Structures are given as C-alpha cells and as structure tokens.
C-alpha cells in the first residue's frame, strides 16, 4: 500500500474492511443443528449457509438478487502472439454480452441475476450498447514486454471502475457479487502476475488459455519469462505488479473485491484470471478473501496453484475455462440451494420429529 499511497486515486483503499458477524455465524450454526437431518448430512451446503450468515450478519442468509459485472479491456501483449484469437474479439464479445448471446448472458437470465458489462479499456471504439458502462482507463494496456503496462493514473482509474461496480451492486440491494472478465491476452497477464507475486517459474503457471497449441504455449511462456526478467523486483508487490504487468480488467476485478470486502458484500469468485485479481487484492489488503467464496476450479493449469495460495476450495470442478464469470455463475444455484435449505427446512421441534 505504501508504494501507491501518494496517488490520491488510491485513498479509498485506506478504508477498513467490514467485520464478519460472529453472532450471526453462531446462530446459523445452531439452527443447522436443529434442522430435521443428521448433523453434517448436507455437507458443504451447511457450511455455505453458515459462512453467508457471518458475511451478511443474518441468521437467515440469502444470495438473491445476485449481481454480475463483466470487465472488458485489451492487452498490448496480444501483439506478441500469446492468444489463439485476434484482439478484435474483445470488442466483438462485448457486443455479444450486450445483446445477450454469451454464456454469462444466458446464465444471468437463467438465475435471474443482474448483468452489466464494464468497458475498462477495449482498444476498438464501441458504439452505444445496452448494459455497457464506460469506465475507460485507456485504449488497452501497453505491451509489458517493452515497459510498464499502465501508468499510475490508469491503474487508479481501472481499480476505481471495479470499486464503482461493487457500489452499484450494493446500492441496488444485491446480496452477492460476481465479477467476470473479457480481454484477449489476459491469461498471459494473469500468469505473469501470479508468477511475480508467488515467486514461481512460468512453467508452473502458463497454460493454453483460449486454446493455444504446444508452440503457442511455448511462445506464451517465453513472453512471461521475458516480462519477469524485465520488471523483476518492481513487480513483487500488488501495486507494482498490476502497474507493470496487469490488465485494466484485472485491476478492476481487484478493486471490486476490495470494495466488496469494505462494504460487507459477499463475492463469488470465478476462475484463473478472477482468482489472480483476488490474489492481488488479498496481497494489497489482508482479509479481502474472507469475503469471497470460490465458484469453480478452472482447467487452466495455473488456477490450482493460485487457489492453493488463497487457501480456497472451489464448489465445482467441471473442466471449464471460459472466463466471463461463467464458472461462478454456474455455481450460483448451489448457494441458492444452501440458503433455501437453511431457511426453509423445519426444525425437529417444529416437525415433531425425535432428535438423535
């Protein structure tokens, strides 16, 4: 935090995180003991209800309505051939989100969640599109193989875009925040960020991303190694890492998780890129991850490493690797079920059932 504290755009990060509510957690745990079932028989669904009770300060937690913000931005490193798709796909996919044709659009409709797309820095100009919020920090990041990915002012703007999305969710009365991302080249950025923060080699974290072949993965690994050599110790802390190696959408996700923890709004974390953004947030302010649940384990090989660093145990393992917040959205019904069971089941006394 000291490295960034002189810039006024980071002042909001000095706000304390919301405390978890121990009394509500205890009350929820006691309720679980009284429900008409053997103790622990609903497994992790019981634990989810109790954790949400602590987060929401209520013995009867609820995750509806849920809010989904998908942050989109482009990456200068895409010019180095690190993705199977051309950079113009980012803008095309933003239009697809806005018109309801993407996976996250379908899942948001299915679960009744609010969905917005936040343009944090798509390289190509976007025409007016429904449900797209303009919060641009630039026209894509610079290529971090030649210098810093962004300026201090751009990092502050990108993180503020995430902060403002969390605040929109909070003002709308949402009970759960899901962050997604879209940006060609962003698995490369996420990989190098994780390498820098965890002090690991590129071979441990670099994977196929959008579907690179073996030669493409080797090219991507070499780009990550070059970036680590270029930026070195300057990227060892979250501020420096995001400044030099990050993407605008990753910085926005980092800001969103930080603000959720300040507001006391539970967040359901998506896959590899979202988890790297949370790693940045947790390294920036310890305790942010206590406000997070983890939707799924991505097929991207580096995700398991980042999850282990966060001490996370995701709900699903379906071989997904799409991004967009889709893995988290796929796990949303489990949270809905956990709350419905916790709130709706009868106690032994209410049902007239003898206890063990």
Automatic annotation (TrEMBL):
* Molecular function (Gene Ontology), one example: nicotinate-nucleotide-dimethylbenzimidazole phosphoribosyltransferase activity
- Is Transmembrane helix found in the keyword set? no
Q: Which reaction does it catalyse?
A: 5,6-dimethylbenzimidazole + nicotinate beta-D-ribonucleotide = alpha-ribazole 5'-phosphate + nicotinate + H(+)
EC number in record: 2.4.2.21
Q: Where is the active site?
A: 324 (proton acceptor)
| Alphabetical keyword list | Cobalamin biosynthesis, Glycosyltransferase, Transferase
Give the metabolic or biological pathway. Answer: Nucleoside biosynthesis; alpha-ribazole biosynthesis; alpha-ribazole from 5,6-dimethylbenzimidazole: step 1/2
**GO BP terms:** cobalamin biosynthetic process
Q: Which InterPro entries match?
A: Nict_dMeBzImd_PRibTrfase, Nict_dMeBzImd_PRibTrfase_bact
Record PANTHER family: NICOTINATE-NUCLEOTIDE--DIMETHYLBENZIMIDAZOLE PHOSPHORIBOSYLTRANSFERASE (PTHR43463:SF1)
The Swiss-Prot or TrEMBL record describes its family as follows:
Belongs to the CobT family.
**NCBIfam families noted in UniProt:** cobT_DBIPRT (TIGR03160), PRK00105.1 (NF000996)
Q: What does this protein do?
A: Catalyzes the synthesis of alpha-ribazole-5'-phosphate from nicotinate mononucleotide (NAMN) and 5,6-dimethylbenzimidazole (DMB).
The cross-references to HAMAP family, in alphabetical order and at most eight, read: CobT
Name of the protein in question: Nicotinate-nucleotide--dimethylbenzimidazole phosphoribosyltransferase
Underlying gene: cobT
């Amino acid at each position: 935090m000291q490295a960034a504290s002189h810039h006024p755009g980071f002042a909001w990060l000095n706000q304390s995180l919301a405390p978890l509510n121990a009394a509500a957690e205890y009350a929820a745990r006691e309720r679980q003991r009284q429900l008409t079932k053997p103790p622990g028989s609903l497994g992790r669904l019981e634990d989810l209800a109790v954790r949400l009770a602590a987060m929401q300060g209520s013995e009867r937690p609820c995750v509806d309505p849920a809010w989904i913000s998908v942050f989109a931005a482009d990456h200068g490193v895409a010019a180095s051939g690190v993705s199977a798709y051309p950079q113009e796909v980012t803008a095309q996919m933003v239009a697809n989100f806005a018109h309801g044709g993407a996976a996250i659009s379908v899942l948001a409709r299915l679960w009744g969640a609010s969905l917005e797309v936040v343009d944090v820095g798509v390289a190509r100009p976007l025409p007016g599109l429904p449900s797209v919020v303009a919060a641009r920090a630039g026209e894509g990041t610079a290529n971090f193989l030649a210098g810093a990915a962004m300026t201090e002012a751009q990092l502050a703007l990108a993180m503020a875009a995430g902060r403002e999305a969390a605040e929109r969710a909070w003002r709308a009365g949402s009970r759960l925040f899901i962050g997604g991302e879209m940006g060609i080249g962003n698995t490369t950025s996420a990989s190098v960020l994780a390498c820098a923060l965890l002090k690991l080699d590129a071979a441990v974290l670099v994977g196929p991303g959008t579907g690179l072949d073996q030669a493409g993965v080797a090219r991507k690994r070499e780009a990550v190694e070059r970036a680590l050599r270029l930026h070195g110790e300057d990227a060892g802390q979250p501020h420096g890492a995001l400044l030099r190696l990050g993407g605008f959408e990753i910085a926005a996700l980092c800001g969103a998780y930080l603000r959720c923890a300040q507001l006391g709004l539970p967040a359901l974390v998506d896959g590899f890129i979202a988890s790297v953004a949370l790693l940045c947030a947790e390294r920036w302010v310890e305790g942010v991850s206590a406000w997070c649940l983890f939707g799924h384990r991505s097929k991207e090989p580096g995700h398991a490493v980042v999850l282990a660093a966060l001490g996370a145990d995701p709900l699903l393992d379906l071989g997904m690797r799409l991004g967009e917040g889709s893995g988290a959205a796929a796990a949303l019904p489990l949270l809905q079920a956990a709350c419905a069971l916790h709130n709706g089941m009868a106690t032994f006394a209410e049902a007239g059932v003898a206890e063990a």
